[in-house]
Amino acid sequence: MITTSGLTKVYESRGRKVTALDGVDLHVREGEVFGVIGQSGAGKSSLIRCVNLLERPTSGTVTVDGVDLTALAGKSRRAGKDLRRARSSIGMVFQHFNLLSSRTVKDNIELPLEILGVSGAERSRRALELLDLVGLADKARSYPGQLSGGQKQRVGIARALAGEPKVLLSDEATSALDPETTRSILQLLRDLNQQLGLTVLLITHEMDVVKTICDSAALMQHGRVVESGTVAELLATPGSQLAAELFPVSGAATGPDRTVVDVTFHGESATQPVISQLSRTYNIDISILGAAMDTVGGRQIGRMRIELPGRYEDNVVPVGFLREQGLQVEVVEEDAETPAAAATALVKEGAK
Ligand SMILES: Nc1ncnc2c1ncn2[C@@H]1O[C@H](COP(=O)(O)OP(=O)(O)OP(=O)(O)O)[C@@H](O)[C@H]1O
Ligand SMILES: [Mg+2]
């Protein structure tokens, strides 16, 4: 639904060049909620602003619903008109709502329809329908100043939906809201995604947002996408930073001669009693040091850090058993007793 390829954005201010996007390839499937996460300055806002051409990319292409927006940008008047039409199929929700304080809630929602030249009666009908959809049917005549933050964001979302977009872009839509309101706004976005088949691309710096509603996620660092995939794919990727942050586990070995492993559960394996099977089959005591389980997209998914008695060499067979059950197992190396850690220690030694 949304594809960017080789997307680059270089800002020039006072003779200094800042590369905000450095060759971003992103693919958002139709009907999914896709989260882009990254630290401040990673280029998230630049990315979303380039996707709807609010910001002109320096190079690369942006395709939304089969239309190459970059090819339309800033060429002939005809292309300009096509670009405006293509952009009306993209709704945008902002962190600070961007509502007009002098207009009523209903008039705020009608604004994009006015710009599209929709007749008064039709505008009014659509606005009331949208207010109902976001749960604010009784606020049509209120002014933004009379609403709570969560209600303002609901108006922002209704306005973004006015042009019946197929894609909704959201830049930190919940970061000005308290946790409770955040949850209700995320739920609304999820409902809209499901009811209307809306594709949602959202930017956030909160891992919880990704965990709550995203089907897929990408991690941005220094203008680049360094990881990207469905939550299940990320979990299945050894060493994935996103997976580790989505399902953080900690806990150190309780003594010498212990093997600590992180086990990732997803899909079928999450419902099998593998840990108790492991314990019975090999007659070993297993300690759980930490766990992070959650339901993502209706499926149980998560990680567990467990400890087995003995060194890694003694546990090759039980670890193999876990892998055979379809689980992803990563050995946590905390001292130089495991081969990989020993290798790392040697490298460090050599570097001295
Ligand atoms: N209009 C601009 N002119 C010059 N530099 C800019 C402009 N907009 C953004 N930048 C720079 O581009 C880089 C990426 O900024 P961007 O706003 O995309 O980051 P972000 O990931 O959205 O950060 P945050 O989480 O703080 O919103 C930063 O170094 C920023 O200073
Ligand atoms: Mg930003």
Pick out its properties.
352 residues, alpha/beta, Rossmann fold, Alpha-Beta Plaits, 6-stranded mixed β-sheet, 4-stranded antiparallel β-sheet, 13 helices, 14 strands, 29% strand, elongated, disordered C terminus, binds adenosine-5'-triphosphate, binds magnesium ion
Strand content: 25-35%
Number of strands: 14
The main sheet comes to: 6 strands, mixed
Count of alpha and pi helical runs: 13
Topology-level CATH name of the largest domain: Rossmann fold
Write down the CATH class of the largest domain: Alpha Beta
Residue runs with pLDDT of under 50 for 5 or more positions = 335-352
Assign the CATH superfamily of the largest domain: P-loop containing nucleotide triphosphate hydrolases
On the 0-100 scale, what is the average pLDDT? 88
> What's the number of structural domains?
2
**N-to-C order of helices and strands:** EEEHEEHHEHHHEHEHEEHHEHEEHEH
Structural class, judged by helices and strands? alpha/beta
Bound ions, cofactors and other small molecules, one mention each: adenosine-5'-triphosphate, magnesium ion
| Rg value | 25 Å
| Corresponding CATH architecture of the largest domain | 3-Layer(aba) Sandwich
The coarse overall form would be: elongated
The largest sheet has its strands arranged as 6-7-8-3-9-10
State the end-to-end CA separation: 51 Å
Relative helix content: 25-40%
